[in-house]
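Worked example

This section walks through a single chain of length 232. The input is the sequence exactly as stored; nothing has been trimmed or padded.
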Amino acid sequence: MNAFTKMARGLKMALVPLALLGLAACASPFRADVSRFQSQLPVPAGQTFTVVAEDPALAGGIEFRTYAQRVADEMAALGYTPVNDPSDAQLLVRFDYGVDNGRERVRSVPAARDPFYSSWHGYTPVVYRTPRGPRVAYVPRYSPWGWGWNDSFFGRDEVYSYTVYTSGIELKIDRASDGQRLFEGEAQAVSTSNRLQHLVPNLVEAMFTGFPGNSGETVRISVAPENSRARR
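Given that input, the structure is written out below as tokens.
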């Protein structure tokens, strides 16, 4: 996929604001922007299909097969019939996925302004850099001048540094008999996670929500958290 460079699979630590961690704990919906185009895509009526890797480097990999199975399950739920051998397929479903290197974001949170309390008690987070990336230390709020002094240093806004990643999938459906392109789709999301195991299944679900959609339209799709879907 040209838009997404394949990443090393090591987990990259990001310094995330406590507010963002709180949102994650509340299992917020996964949101993706989905663009779809179609031309003569047949109405599902048992047509055979197989999922193949758009990127030859992914073909045959266990990871690719795991995500390809998600695509196959969605296609089968629509009424198409999966087959393993591309020579037996009427439709070739070309699939690709990836996540970028991420980019740093900084967030400023206004400090409390109580002149007799906020600068005296508790801790202020201070971001600093190390060879392993940004880290945070918490320093006590106090003033050596006695009660009633609102120290400007310890009362300043709190600044957090974190990393956001853009992930995406591409889906193309060709008619096997003549190679005619019948469908093209792309789903993208921005998040603080670069874990493909989390991102790709959500992007696949977004792609097939309301499939095949209106040709040429880009829509924002929210996927319910995993625990919410399980309760249905």
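What to look for: The helical segments are 18-25, 62-78, 196-207, 226-230.
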